[in-house]
TrEMBL record, chain A:
<comment type="function">
    <text>The proteasome is a multicatalytic proteinase complex which is characterized by its ability to cleave peptides with Arg, Phe, Tyr, Leu, and Glu adjacent to the leaving group at neutral or slightly basic pH. The proteasome has an ATP-dependent proteolytic activity. This subunit is involved in antigen processing to generate class I binding peptides.</text>
</comment>
<comment type="function">
    <text>Component of the proteasome, a multicatalytic proteinase complex which is characterized by its ability to cleave peptides with Arg, Phe, Tyr, Leu, and Glu adjacent to the leaving group at neutral or slightly basic pH. The proteasome has an ATP-dependent proteolytic activity.</text>
</comment>
<dbReference type="GO" id="GO:0051603">
    <property type="term" value="P:proteolysis involved in protein catabolic process"/>
</dbReference>
<keyword id="KW-0865">Zymogen</keyword>
<dbReference type="GO" id="GO:0005654">
    <property type="term" value="C:nucleoplasm"/>
</dbReference>
<dbReference type="GO" id="GO:0005737">
    <property type="term" value="C:cytoplasm"/>
</dbReference>
<dbReference type="GO" id="GO:0005839">
    <property type="term" value="C:proteasome core complex"/>
</dbReference>
<keyword id="KW-0647">Proteasome</keyword>
<comment type="subunit">
    <text>Component of the proteasome complex.</text>
</comment>
Automatic annotation (TrEMBL), chain B:
<dbReference type="GO" id="GO:0005634">
    <property type="term" value="C:nucleus"/>
</dbReference>
<dbReference type="InterPro" id="IPR035206">
    <property type="entry name" value="Proteasome_beta2"/>
</dbReference>
<comment type="subunit">
    <text>The 26S proteasome consists of a 20S proteasome core and two 19S regulatory subunits. The 20S proteasome core is a barrel-shaped complex made of 28 subunits that are arranged in four stacked rings. The two outer rings are each formed by seven alpha subunits, and the two inner rings are formed by seven beta subunits. The proteolytic activity is exerted by three beta-subunits PSMB5, PSMB6 and PSMB7.</text>
</comment>
<dbReference type="GO" id="GO:0005737">
    <property type="term" value="C:cytoplasm"/>
</dbReference>
<keyword id="KW-0963">Cytoplasm</keyword>
<keyword id="KW-0539">Nucleus</keyword>
<dbReference type="InterPro" id="IPR029055">
    <property type="entry name" value="Ntn_hydrolases_N"/>
</dbReference>
<comment type="function">
    <text>Component of the proteasome, a multicatalytic proteinase complex which is characterized by its ability to cleave peptides with Arg, Phe, Tyr, Leu, and Glu adjacent to the leaving group at neutral or slightly basic pH. The proteasome has an ATP-dependent proteolytic activity.</text>
</comment>
<dbReference type="InterPro" id="IPR016050">
    <property type="entry name" value="Proteasome_bsu_CS"/>
</dbReference>
Length: 267, 200
């Protein structure tokens, strides 16, 4: 390594060895905990054999609608709260938004177990980053951490569609991360099996210069209409607003009441 | 669903890629850039399975930059293409192959412009023009008919426009915009996005 040798650069581990002396273990700086899996084990095949088609009927918690969009006054995040296991509703009030820190939120869709575990791990990594570097992690870096965790388990049957929402030095940030390590930055995303219905409503009602109340209403509408059409979404709408000085929880409203209110206005 | 195209001239390479990032039937993003800058004069265009594309392209991008840091000079386009192919081939028979289709375009001081076609089975071919995706079935014949090795820059852009108009007319999927870049001895230049309009 030509430039490396010439510049006399000492790598971190060499310096640490000099300061602390040998006999101290080296700093473990791995962002993930690794699960050791025996060679030849095929988790995704095993999962398929346990589902309804495989005959065993252990269906994972799936089915959701979540949405998030940026506008002039920050980012709106809205999620439903139904946790379904096949055709059984496992919970009416599942919590699908993880509050990573006062400036970062993560949404969950897909397998509840996968989302809860990996996003909680992401929250741990964000906290460690802040302790090590004395500044909050950027939204871009946080989403990249999650994306790389997904990459480590490629092809093993993880199911997670998540949006990382935050406000950092570069302003409001919204990233979509999923289980095949796709990471997209954008201004509007919706995930889950009800996402297509949500896209229909929020695409047609969106304006960049909406007021805050209009944006709240658009988020509520998106989830409500999606839960109306999608059997696997329902429960309550949990609405968050990411502002410059952190997020606030705006409201939690039952979708059946909302849909009746909207239909009354229609006729 | 995605589309890549490259056209080599005498002293330049013109490349274009569509801008849609899709997930089953939904367009998640309409301004996705599918070109990755490997060095000042090399671009890697990458389409394929979700997740694999960006991960593989960034992996190659960082390794090319590392090579430059370690050895003090950059890889030529031909060497970069072969390096990429070798990596793709190594992963091909592993548990997690990368399902990506690539075009690598570059300008070398000694060899001039070069366009390399690579597919997910790790085949590599240097070609005067190439395309990936369903759109290739419609446009390769246009390239066969109108391509000449001595195309000027404007003629190449016109040929590219012909191809994109054909997609707009006959391809069942809507691809509303395409990023276009040109590589010559001065480096990589961004040209204006092509947005085919209306039905003919």
């Amino acid at each position: 390594m030509a430039l490396f040798d010439v510049s006399g650069y000492k790598s971190h581990s060499e310096l640490r060895g000099q300061i602390l002396g040998t006999g101290v273990g080296h700093l473990i700086d791995r962002p993930n905990q690794q699960f050791s899996v025996p060679v030849g084990v095929d988790p995704s095949g095993f999962l398929k054999s346990c589902s309804r088609e495989g005959g065993v009927s252990i269906d994972l918690n799936h089915g959701t609608t979540t949405l998030a969009f940026t506008f002039r006054h920050g980012v709106i995040v809205a999620v439903d709260s139904r946790a379904s296991a096949g055709s059984y509703i496992a919970s009416k009030e599942a919590n699908k938004v993880i509050e990573i820190n006062p400036y970062l939120l993560g949404t969950m869709s897909g397998s509840a177990a996968d989302c809860q575990y990996w996003e909680r791990l992401l929250a741990k990594e964000c906290r460690l980053y802040k302790l090590r570097n004395k500044q909050r992690i950027s939204v871009s870096a946080a989403s990249k951490l999650l994306c790389n965790m997904m990459l480590g388990y490629r092809g093993m049957g993880l199911s997670m569609g998540s949006m990382i929402v935050g406000w950092d030095n570069k302003g409001p940030g919204l990233y979509y991360v999923d289980d095949n390590a796709t990471r997209l930055s954008g201004r509007m995303f919706s995930t889950g099996c009800g996402s297509s219905y949500a896209y229909g409503v929020i695409d047609s009602g969106y304006r960049e210069d909406m007021t805050v109340e209009e944006a709240y209403e658009l988020g509520r509408r998106g989830i409500t209409h999606a839960t109306h059409r999608d059997a696997y979404s329902g429960g309550v709408v949990n609405l968050y607003h990411m502002q410059e000085d952190g997020w606030i929880k705006v409201c939690k409203e039952d979708v059946s009441e909302l849909i009746h209110r909207y239909r009354k206005d229609m006729f | 669903m995605e589309y890549l195209i490259g056209i080599q001239g005498q002293d330049f390479v013109l490349v274009a890629a569509d801008n849609i990032a899709a997930n089953s039937i939904i367009q998640m993003k309409q301004d996705q850039d599918k070109m990755f800058k490997l060095s000042d004069k090399i671009l890697l265009l990458c389409v394929g399975e979700a997740g694999d594309t960006v991960q593989f392209a960034e992996y190659i991008q960082k390794n090319i930059q590392l090579y430059k840091m370690r050895n003090g000079y950059e890889l030529s386009p031909k060497a970069a293409a072969n390096f990429t192919r070798k990596n793709l081939a190594d992963y091909l028979r592993s548990r997690t192959p990368y399902h990506v289709n690539l075009l690598l375009a570059g300008f070398d001081e000694t060899d001039g412009p070069g366009l390399y076609y690579m597919d997910h089975l790790s085949a590599l071919a240097k070609a005067p023009f190439a395309a990936h995706g369903y759109g290739a079935y419609l446009t390769l014949s246009i390239l066969d008919r109108y391509y000449r090795p001595d195309l000027t820059r404007d003629e190449a852009v016109d040929l590219l426009k012909k191809c994109i108009e054909e997609l707009n007319k006959r391809f069942i999927l809507n691809l509303p915009s395409f990023s276009v870049r040109l590589i010559d001895k001065e480096g990589i230049h961004d040209l204006e996005k092509l947005m085919p309009v209306g039905a003919k």
